[in-house]
Specification:
about 350 residues, mainly alpha, Cytochrome Bc1 Complex, Chain D, domain 2, two-stranded antiparallel ribbon, 11 helices
């Protein structure tokens, strides 16, 4: 009888012990989600990615940024999210010569790929944004929102109030930033996610790291042409396949409404018609090519560059050499190399808060 009377107390003690252990585990799990993580994907044989001191990387912040990146509710008419211009099947571009924002606002330039964007110091074709966080806010206010706060359209602050009212988002912003949703912490979260989009699992990255079997024999011959007679590495240099500089190669210089590119930012005469060198990663998927999408096929873009660009008063003659003549086989080898610069992107759209 006395033994039986002790069982409920023992069971209660056991239940309380299990509950305390579960709470301790959950507290540790939540902390691990929000604490700063120092190990993230990186490109081989390249300098470490520079993470802003005011926006350290955490698992929870990256997860929040991934949700926001894929959420159409960031746009005023709920028709657009960041992902609309950066699609996996299109090499993280939109596969168009232009872009269309909310309320059908048109942006004349082709969206560049996001591969390895965390390594860049300047953003957009003209480099007008000097941080990834600034680029996110620029794109959000203009491209995604469709002219933020103008013509009766909601502002970034308006969208933040809408996001904050969604329980799943409101809770996450408090956990990650210790405050309600603001335009600045939306940009920080999306930028943190952007810094994880690293092409370190590509055949090119493995080849750069020393794996001689990563590229086919034909592609390896193409690489020799790329860095040798083709002189492509004058601009498409290193493991990122970009020098992150601005060059006038003559694209769009005969347009009726001339886009002066980098000149619009610096007002430097040497920058007239100069645009940032894009990475060539996933280049086979990201047609059309150049900032204006004027080259429909990869072959067209390659032939333009082998021809030394298109002549104009501001042509970058220091980096664009005289026309390079390749045999039919050499040209095919070069194209094979470019087509093997593909990247498998495993990130799938997350479940969004409701």
């Amino acid at each position: 009888m006395s033994g039986d009377s002790k069982r409920p107390r023992l069971n209660l003690t056991l239940a309380l012990t299990v509950l305390l252990l579960m709470m301790a585990y959950l507290n540790e799990w939540v902390f691990s989600m929000t604490e700063v993580q120092t190990s993230w994907p990186e490109m081989p044989r390249y300098e470490a990615m520079k993470i802003p001191t005011d926006n350290p990387m955490t698992i929870a912040k990256v997860e929040l940024g991934k949700q926001l990146f894929h959420d159409r509710r960031l746009s005023g008419d709920e028709s657009r999210g960041c992902f609309i211009c950066h699609l996996k099947p299109r090499g993280l571009t939109n596969g168009r010569a232009d872009a269309v924002g909310a309320y059908k606002v048109r942006i004349s330039r082709s969206p560049p790929t996001l591969w390895n964007i965390g390594y860049y110091s300047e953003f957009y074709w003209d480099g007008r944004s000097r941080s990834l966080e600034a680029q996110v806010k620029d794109a959000w206010s203009g491209r995604i929102l469709g002219a933020s706060g103008k013509d009766g359209h909601p502002s970034m602050e308006d969208i933040c109030r809408k996001l904050e009212a969604i329980e799943g988002y409101g809770k996450q912003f408090q956990e990650v930033f210790g405050e309600a949703c603001t335009p600045d912490n939306v940009a920080k979260a999306i930028a943190a996610f952007g810094r994880t989009i690293v092409a370190n699992n590509s055949a090119w990255a493995r080849s750069w790291a020393g794996d001689e079997s990563a590229l086919s024999e034909k592609a390896q011959r193409g690489w020799e042409i790329f860095r040798g007679r083709g002189r492509c590495t004058n601009c498409h240099d290193g493991v990122l396949l970009t020098d992150q500089q601005y060059h006038n190669i003559g694209i769009g210089m005969d347009a009726e409404n001339l886009d002066l590119g980098r000149y619009n930012v610096t007002k430097n005469e040497e920058h007239r018609g100069a645009f940032k060198t894009p990475t060539l990663l996933d280049i086979s998927k990201s047609a059309p090519y150049f900032h204006d999408g004027s080259a429909a096929k990869l072959e067209d873009a390659v032939d333009t560059m082998l021809a030394g660009g298109i002549d104009n008063p501001w042509l970058d003659r220091a980096n664009l050499r005289p026309p390079v003549k390749l045999s039919k086989r050499e040209r095919q080898d070069l194209l094979t190399f470019l087509r093997e610069l593909t990247v498998e992107y495993a990130v799938t759209p997350p479940r969004l808060p409701k």
